[in-house]
Amino acid sequence: MSRADHMDVAAYALGVLDAQDAERFEEHLATCWACAAELETMVPVVGMLAGIDGEAMAALEQTHTDPALLDRTLVAVRRDRRRTRVRQLLATAAAVVVFGGLSGVAAGFLGDDAPPTPQAAPTPSVPTAAPSSGPADPNQPGLGGDKEIEGDQHNATDAGTGVKTTMWLAKKEYGTQISVQLSRLPGPRTCRLLVVRKNSTTEVVGTWSVPGSGYGTNQNQLSLLLSASTSAPLGDIQKVQVQSVDVNGVASPLVTVADL
Question: Bias category Basic and acidic residues: which stretches (predicted)?
Answer without folding.
Answer: 145-155
